Amino acid sequence: MKLTNVAKASLEELRLDYEDFLRQRNLVLWEKNDPRRKALVAQRCQNADEVAAWVRRVYWEKNGQDGRNGHSATTKPPSIKSISFIKSIPSIYAETAANAALVLIGVAIALLNRQVASQAKSFENEGGFTERLYRVRKNTRD
Predict the structure, then answer these.
(1) DSSP state, 128?
(2) For 11-61, how does the pLDDT look when each residue is reduced to its tens digit (9 = 90+)?
(3) Which pairs count as long-range contacts for 32-39, CB under 8 Å and 24+ apart, including other chains?
(4) Which of 38, 18, 26 is CA-nearest to residue 101?
(5) Domain limits of the chain?
(6) Exposure string for 8-43, b = 16+ CB within 10 A, e = fewer
């Protein structure tokens, strides 16, 4: 439970860092009911690459071009690997990416909260690691 809470605290700290990133650049922090948040959650992304693809797609659909090299809306969105310098990323792209990260952090924190609750219940019913180890050792001796 301690380590799970440490993981949760680390994510809370990361959440604050992303919020600071948006605030310092005068970018919008999406509200809880923002349709983009709901759209990202509905995507049920399985990994970071799928989230990055979603961010590119949202930016691409909104702007019709990538903002750096004039691609038209009829061509494929640029790969995240093609972005050579973070400073060249348009602010709306950074805003979308940071907010997407915040959505994922929120999901992870919610899952960790559920895990801590489950661990607490298990601790109440079965005891801690040391107690279980003692029972196994005692049963072996008997």
Answers:
(1) -
(2) 999 999 999 999 999 999 999 899 988 889 888 988 888 888 888 888 777
(3) 34/99, 36/96, 36/99, 37/99, 37/103
(4) 18
(5) 2-141
(6) beebeeebeebeebbeeeeeeebeeeeebbeebeee
